[in-house]
Amino acid sequence: MRAGRRWIAGIAGLFFIVAAAAQMPPEPTTKGDYGNGEDFRLTPIVAKDGAGKPITDIPAFELGFRDTDGAWTEGGPPVPFTGVIPDALRGRVMLVLDGDWSLVPRGWKMSYAMLTSDTTLAVGYEAPGGKASGWMNSGMVVCAGCALEYAAPYFPRSMQDWRADADEDWPRPRAEHSPLHLSRPDGCTVVFDYQMPHSPPVHEWMNYIGVRYGVLLSFEIAMPDADKDLRDLIFADHTSDHQKCVVRQDRVKGKHHGRSRRRSTAA
Fold it and tell me: What is the pLDDT along the chain (267 residues), one digit of tens a residue?
C-alpha cells in the first residue's frame, strides 16, 4: 500500500475503495473472523505498463478482502504500472493492486488484510519461511484517538496534544520497540530501525500530520541485511506518497526553538 495514494480519496480519511456489491465474487478459499483480517485473497491478473503493454516478467495480483461489516472489497480497476524497477531486482518482486500498484517480495504470502469499522486499514505479508525470515506491514489509522496515541511517542507535538486530552490515570503512550536510529525527513515523518525477537532488523516509516488534518500512515519491513537492496526498493515504493505537513508534529506548540525569539509557526 503506497501511503497517501492507495485507499485514500481525501486527506480527511475517505478511501478509494471499489466494493463489488452488485456482483459479489466467489467466496475466497481462505475464510476466518472478519475482525482478525483472515478473509482475503490475491487474484492473479495482468499488469500493463504506461504504454498499455502487458508486463510479462513480473507476476501481478489484485488484493481482495472482506471488512468487518462483511462487505467484499477489491483494489481495482487496474491502472498502468509506471514505476521503475532495476533489472537486477525485477525477478525478485511481484505487483499487488490495492488501489494502486505496490511492490512485494516475490513469493511472500499475505498474513492478514482488514478494514475495521473505524476505517483503520492494515495489510501484512511474510516470507515463505515465516516471519523469522522476513515480513512487512502497511497501515492507515483514521481513528483519531488511536492515531494520536500511536504517534505520541515519536512526535513531541502529538504527545502534547495527547496529554491535553488524557485523564490523569491514563498511562503515557510508549513506543512498543525502542528505536535504534531515528531520522526526521520532515516535521511530520519519522524513519527508524528497531530489533525484535525472531525477526530480521525492522525498518519503519510513520507519517502523521495531526488528527484535524489527516490520518496516520505507517509502513514497516523486516529483511536480512543481505537483502538490503530489495528492502530499500520496496521501502521507497511504499513511502513515496506522504501527506503534506500542515502542522509540524516535531515541535511543541508555543515553545521557542534555538536562539530565535519568534514563536514556532506550527499551528
Answer: 555 444 333 322 323 222 222 233 344 444 444 444 567 889 999 999 999 999 999 999 999 887 767 778 787 778 899 999 999 999 999 999 988 899 999 999 998 887 766 667 789 999 999 999 999 999 888 887 888 888 888 887 888 777 777 666 677 778 888 899 899 999 889 999 999 999 999 999 999 887 777 788 999 999 999 999 999 999 999 998 878 887 788 777 665 444 333 333 333
Torsion of CA 87, 228, 218, 71, to 10 degrees: 50
Please check whether residue 253 is in contact with residue 265, taking contact to mean a CB–CB distance below 8 angstroms.
Answer: no
Which string of b and e fits 17-30 if b means at least 16 CB within 10 Å?
beeeeeeeeeebee
d(CA 149, CA 160): 11
Query: The whole model's pTM is what?
Result: 0.78
Domain locations in the chain? Answer: 18-238
Cα torsion 26, 32, 35, 41: sign: negative
Contact in structure between 138 and 123 (CB atoms under 8 Å): yes
Contact 211, 148 (CB under 8 A): yes
**Separation between Cα atoms, residue 24 and residue 204, nearest integer Å:** 36
Are 46 and 62 in contact by the 8 Å Cβ rule? The answer is no
C-alpha torsion angle, residues 19, 24, 30, 32 (rounded to 10)? 70
**d(Cα 234, Cα 152) in Å, to the nearest integer?**
26
